[in-house]
Design goal:
heterodimer; A: alpha/beta; eight-stranded parallel beta barrel; four-stranded antiparallel β-sheet; B: alpha/beta; Elongation Factor Tu (Ef-tu), domain 3; seven-stranded mixed β-sheet; six-stranded antiparallel beta barrel; 15% helix
């Protein structure tokens, strides 16, 4: 049994496996299938200052080895989360992070400030990379100046672990990562979805109501892995890798490329037990290859 | 409680050119209510990434059998069409809410095309509870009238075909049985048909539930992809449906 624990800049994880926001609900959706306390952590659904209905249906298109989504951050707002959802999950012994999104810098700040008060939420993941909202979201994550601004402002009010989720839809993800680091991020997570689209040739219309959406699943894994490797080389803060991870082998690739932890997203839809299988598989890999500790394989490439 | 179970295929019976009946066995078959669905992982189909949500056609609790009535549409269902007895199918179940079985009154169950699937389980359950369900099945032609004897075990069954090759000619909403009075309507089929039925139910002030089949990813309320617009905002078809009372939907009927 290898030591799977990892500390990412103050955030102590029992193992490096987290779940990706938007793919794991509030965790409770998966309680029938897995013991949530086995997870290194889970990142709950994107939360905004006010209630959002999200985009109209259809919001999803299956693609070869993946899917496009255009959910558009449907959620009931941070106050609803605090009053109705937080009490139901706060005693789960895992790291519960809240993914925070917004249309304006002040929205991000106000939301982060409220979540800062929640004792059992040790961190937030600042979503500056959602491709499915008209205002804000990815707009903040595609230039260094706007990324710096929003991270700086949130840093002033948010005292716990601040993870910043980066968009792959940029010219240089390294520069955005450095901007986030320079503005006070404790870690960066990457990648959010890649912008894509699908067309129905029978109706000659786009499949998604929003025309474009975010691509996820195994089809994005090589791109994600390359970006994690590039970012891990230039930043000093920990990198959390995600994008198409479906197996322990996939997760180990990200760790070797320099990720200190990983998130599992779309794979949860096909196998709700995938996360615990990945945790067990990482342990087996370490045992079989003579490593006593997961930290020994991070960034070997 | 939801489970992930590897079912064993007992039988894969082709009912017509593009419809199959899968009979699946598991010793762990959980309780399933009429209207609920299952999410089937399709192995060995490279272009099928997500599971396929399929409504439950019938269950045989005593013998651990699950019946799925599947129309072959794309690569995923084509692959299911080729599955052989003895092979395994990985299924998440039971999913979604269920039809509201009334305690009394005369229920009408309307199924269009492969929308007949959940109506067998529902009519069986209604009959077991002492109701006398009437089932109205609408298809394109007589070749699509399937599982007739099974339905006739539990219900009085009426038929329409678009070409008049069996039963009355036309659409379900044109069938003469609708001149009789009913207390509840349960409907599953193409959305255009369900909207027409909803319009009929609304005009006669009859309680009406419909089963929606929006495209889904997770089937357990995590991804929020399958939403339908209701008077209370977007609701997940997978967890807050698939059965909706037409009064809660925003359909213009």
């Amino acid at each position: 049994m290898a030591d799977l624990s990892i500390n990412i800049n103050g955030l102590a994880l029992k193992n490096p496996v987290l779940t990706a926001s938007g793919t794991f609900g509030y965790g409770t959706e998966f309680q029938d299938f897995i013991d949530l306390e086995r997870l290194g952590g889970f990142i709950v659904k994107g939360t905004t200052l006010k209630h959002r209905e999200g985009n109209p249906y259809p919001r999803m298109a299956e693609t070869p080895s993946g899917m496009l989504n255009a959910v558009g951050l449907q959620n009931k707002g941070v106050d609803y989360f605090i009053e109705h959802i937080y009490p139901t999950i706060k005693d789960i012994k895992s790291n519960i992070l809240v993914n925070v999104s917004g249309s304006t810098v002040s929205d991000y700040v106000a939301t982060a400030e409220k979540i800062n008060e929640l004792e059992n939420i040790p961190g937030i993941e600042l979503n500056i990379s959602c491709p499915n909202v008209k205002e804000g979201g990815m707009a903040f994550g595609t230039s260094c100046a706007s990324a710096s601004e929003v991270v700086n402002e949130v840093r002033k009010v948010y005292k716990k672990h601040l993870m910043v989720k980066l968009s792959p839809n940029v010219t240089s993800i390294q520069e955005i990562a450095l901007a986030a680091e320079g503005s006070g991020a404790d870690s960066v997570s990457l990648i959010n979805t890649l912008m894509g689209m699908a067309i129905n040739t029978k109706t000659r219309k786009p499949v998604l109501s929003t025309i474009t959406g975010g691509l996820s699943g195994p089809c994005v894994k090589p791109v994600a892995l390359r970006m994690v490797w590039q970012v891990a080389k230039v930043v000093k803060i920990p990198v959390v890798g995600l994008g198409g991870i479906c197996s322990a082998t996939d997760a180990i690739e990200f760790l070797l490329a320099g990720a200190s932890a990983v998130q599992i997203g779309t794979a949860n839809f096909i196998d709700p037990m995938v996360t615990v299988k990945v945790i067990d598989g990482i342990n087996d890999y370490l045992d079989q290859n003579g490593f006593t500790c997961v930290r020994d394989i991070i960034g070997l490439i | 409680m939801k489970k992930i179970i590897d079912f064993t295929v007992k039988e894969n019976k082709r009912l017509n050119d593009d419809t199959i009946l899968l009979v699946l066995y598991s010793s762990e078959l959980p309780e399933i209510k009429p209207g609920q669905f299952v999410n089937v992982r399709v192995d060995h189909s490279p272009s099928t990434f997500l599971r396929r949500p399929i409504s439950v056609h019938d269950v045989d609790v005593e013998n651990g059998l699950l019946y799925l009535f599947i129309k072959i549409v794309g690569c995923g269902t084509s692959t299911l069409g080729e599955i052989e007895p003895g092979q395994k199918l990985n299924i998440i179940l039971p999913l979604g809410n269920n039809f509201t079985i009334p305690s009394s009154g005369r229920p009408l169950l309307i199924g269009g095309g492969c929308g007949v699937a959940p109506m067998l389980h529902l009519s069986r359950e209604m009959k077991a509870r002492g109701l006398s369900p009437v089932v109205l099945i609408g298809t394109r032609t007589d070749k699509d009238i399937l599982r007739k004897e099974e339905f006739e075990k539990y219900a009085s069954v009426y038929y329409t075909t678009e070409d008049g090759s069996f039963g009355e000619k036309g659409y379900v909403t044109q069938h003469s049985i609708l001149n009789e009075s009913f207390d509840h309507i349960f409907c599953c089929g193409p959305e255009v048909m369900m909207r027409a039925v909803a319009g009929y139910a609304n005009s006669k002030n009859i309680e009406c539930e419909v089963s929606l089949e929006n495209t889904m990813a997770c089937g357990i309320g995590a991804c929020l992809c399958c939403v339908t617009d209701t008077k209370e905002g977007h609701k997940c078809v997978c967890t807050e449906g698939p059965i909706f009372n037409i009064k809660d939907l925003k359909w213009q009927i």
